[in-house]
Structure formats: structure tokens, C-alpha cells
């Protein structure tokens, strides 16, 4: 955001390469800790901000002298002819909390064009079921998918939506309205931890049971890491092909303890080619390739930093690297040497990467 003088210390970041100024035209308080922002896209960059259901925007702000980037999924659908993001307050989340506290009509957000691969796969049959699982704010990209499928196809949808409590369920009334309007196509099952504890594998298996055939449905999963892990394991156990299971992570993967100790040759040097310039960077154990590039003073491309969007991808031309998470690259791209630098740790004495 820009042009706002407040206690958060926001300053204007207009003019940043790749970012456009989007004005907030409407603020919708969804729950006590979540807000939706409807954004006006200037005509001169409207083509760049066309999006697919399930994608996200990267927002860039400066708070208290620190430049921060955060990714927020669109909760609107392209068929609505508007762009809306939804932001949930997060304990310790500087940007999400600041947006929840200060967002107002007329304020400008600086955002990069939509990205992300958590998008609809073209169904081979109109009867292919869309099976979606959302935990908490994970409903944000999911509701965009649901709205799009309802408006553009005749596919049936099953949605499992988990929240800690009823009052924390974002879009509860909107979802009820969609279910009432499409009773023959949309089935919603709500789960509240306050009633029966956290989601269990058996609850997921019971929800999937009516899906027939299980291997022709498309499965979309978004939410907190423990929730996603439980759902993914249950879905795969049910017989769903891995190629039909799609994940969207909101949190950055943490580097496991000792992950760099497996290599017999500690990394000593990382060579980075960016914008046709070559930099020899010293390596600090535990850092990703993206962190290494930043420590060398390079403005390497990045966006989500969770391994979901592919913005930071580079090709390893010498040595090797190990990806902690990959929800963006296809198998053939990995075989060609491409890695997500935000999720990649060097795994050889010398690593040479090229941003192309």
C-alpha cells in the first residue's frame, strides 16, 4: 500500500519495477480477523492483471523502513469482472495485520501481476467432480475455483471446509448462497474444531467416499500445513492419482535441521548469472540459493517464496541443488535442471545457476 500516513509507518513504493498501483474501491469485513479488498486496475495495465481462478497477487509495501512482499490469493472469479483479494490477520504478520487495521477505500496497493499454478485443469468430462479442501484462510483461492466452475461448466463440486470455530469461517454466507443456488451441483461439508477436534484422516476418507470414480476427480487442497498433510495423505490413499492432486501452500517451508549435513562436500561457492552478469557468491550453510543471491546484493526475481509460483526459477548448469518444496515445476523441467531458488539448497562444492 502507499500514500497512507499511519502508525504502521507505510511509505510509497510506486515506481517499483513490475508493480502497478491498484486503488482499493471497496473494503469488506468478512470476519473479525479477515478483510476483502476490491481493487481497481488501471486501464493501461488491465491486460497484465487478467487472472485465472486460484492465482494470487504479490503485494509490495514498506513498513517502518523495511520493504516487504506478501502473496494474497484472489477470492473473486474472472467471470465477476473484478479483482478481489482476501487477507486474514496472522499473529506476528506485519503486512496482513497492517492491511486489516488500515485498509480503506481510495488507498493504493502496489501489486505485481497475477501468478500461480493452483488453477483449474481442463476437465475431460463434464461429470468430472471438483473435490476441494480448505482450511481457514485456505478458502480464498478455493472459492475462486468454485465460483468459476459453477459459472462456466456443469461439473459437480464437493467442498470440505474446516475452521476452528463458526465465527472464523470466511465467506460462510456466500457459500451458503452458492449452495442454495446450485443444490444439485454443490455439496459443502463444514468442520469446526470446537465441535470435534482437528480434522482426522477418517473424516477426509468419509468425505471422499461418495466420489465415483475416485481417479477421475480433481482435488484441490489449501490451508495450514498439518491440515494439508492430513488431507493429501487421505486423498492419495483413496486411490486418487497424484497428477490430479493440487496443493497451494501459504507458509514458507522451513529448512529441516541437519539438511545440509548429508553432502560429503560442503558448498564453498555459488555462481549466479542474472541479467547477463556473473557473480561469484560466498555461501553460508543453510541458506537457499535465493537467500545467497540477495546476500550478494542481487535483485533476483521472487514472489511467493513457498515454492508455488515459479517466479524464482533458475537453471542449474553446474553442480546440484536440493529442493525442499516444489509445487510449481513439472517433472521434465526438473530433469532439465530447473529449480525454485527460494526452496533450493546447494548440494555440491560448487553450484552454478542461471536466471533466464
Automatic annotation (TrEMBL):
GO terms assigned for molecular function: 2 iron, 2 sulfur cluster binding; flavin adenine dinucleotide binding; metal ion binding; monooxygenase activity
Keyword Transcription regulation recorded: no
Principal EC category: oxidoreductase
Domain 2Fe-2S ferredoxin-type residues, every copy: 268-356
Residue stretches making up the FAD-binding FR-type domain: 17-121
CDD domains tied to this protein: fer2, PA_degradation_oxidoreductase_like
Keywords per UniProt: 2Fe-2S, FAD, Flavoprotein, Iron, Iron-sulfur, Metal-binding, Monooxygenase, Oxidoreductase
Superkingdom of this protein's organism: Bacteria
EC identifiers of the protein: 1.14.13.142
Pfam families xrefs: FAD_binding_6, Fer2, NAD_binding_1
Cofactor: FAD
Name listed for the protein in its UniProt record: 3-ketosteroid-9-alpha-monooxygenase, ferredoxin reductase component
Organism: Mycolicibacterium vanbaalenii
Upper taxonomic lineage: Bacteria, Bacillati, Actinomycetota, Actinomycetes, Mycobacteriales
Gene name of the record: kshB
Amino acid at each position: 500500500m502507499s500514500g497512507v500516513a499511519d502508525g504502521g509507518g507505510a511509505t510509497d513504493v510506486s515506481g517499483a519495477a513490475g508493480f502497478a498501483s491498484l486503488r482499493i474501491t471497496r473494503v469488506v469485513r468478512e470476519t473479525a480477523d479477515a478483510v476483502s479488498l476490491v481493487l481497481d486496475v488501471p486501464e493501461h495495465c488491465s491486460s497484465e492483471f487478467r487472472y485465472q481462478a486460484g492465482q494470487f497477487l504479490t503485494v509490495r509495501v514498506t513498513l517502518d523502513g523495511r520493504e516487504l512482499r506478501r502473496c494474497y490469493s484472489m477470492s473473486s472469479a474472472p467471470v465477476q469482472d473484478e479483482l478481489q483479494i482476501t487477507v486474514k490477520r496472522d499473529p506476528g504478520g506485519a503486512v496482513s495485520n497492517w492491511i486489516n487495521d488500515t485498509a480503506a477505500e481510495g488507498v493504493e496497493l502496489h501489486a505485481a501481476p497475477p501468478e500461480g499454478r493452483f488453477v483449474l485443469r481442463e476437465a475431460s468430462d463434464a461429470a468430472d467432480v471438483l473435490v476441494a479442501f480448505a482450511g481457514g484462510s485456505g478458502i480464498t483461492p478455493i472459492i475462486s475455483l468454485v465460483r468459476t466452475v459453477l459459472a462456466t461448466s456443469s461439473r459437480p463440486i464437493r467442498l470440505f471446509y474446516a475452521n476452528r470455530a463458526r465465527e472464523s469461517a470466511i465467506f460462510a454466507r456466500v457459500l451458503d448462497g452458492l449452495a442454495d443456488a446450485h443444490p444439485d451441483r454443490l455439496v459443502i461439508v463444514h468442520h469446526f474444531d470446537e465441535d470435534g477436534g482437528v480434522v482426522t484422516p477418517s473424516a477426509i476418507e468419509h468425505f471422499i467416499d461418495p466420489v465415483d470414480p475416485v481417479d477421475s476427480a480433481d482435488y484441490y487442497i489449501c490451508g495450514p500445513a498439518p491440515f494439508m498433510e492430513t488431507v493429501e495423505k487421505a486423498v492419495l490413499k483413496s486411490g486418487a492419482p497424484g497428477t490430479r492432486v493440487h496443493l497451494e501452500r501459504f507458509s514458507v517451508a522451513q529448512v529441516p535441521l541437519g539438511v545440509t549435513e548429508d553432502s560429503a562436500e560442503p558448498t564453498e561457492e555459488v555462481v549466479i548469472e542474472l541479467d547477463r552478469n556473473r557473480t561469484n557468491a560466498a555461501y553460508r550453510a543453510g541458506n537457499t540459493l535465493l537467500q545467497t543471491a540477495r546476500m550478494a546484493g542481487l535483485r533476483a526475481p521472487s514472489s511467493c517464496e513457498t515454492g508455488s509460483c515459479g517466479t524464482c526459477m533458475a537453471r542449474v548448469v553446474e553442480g546440484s541443488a536440493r529442493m525442499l518444496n516444489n509445487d510449481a515445476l513439472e517433472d521434465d523441467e526438473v530433469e532439465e535442471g530447473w529449480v525454485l531458488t527460494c526452496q533450493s539448497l546447494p548440494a555440491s562444492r560448487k553450484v552454478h545457476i542461471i536466471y533466464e
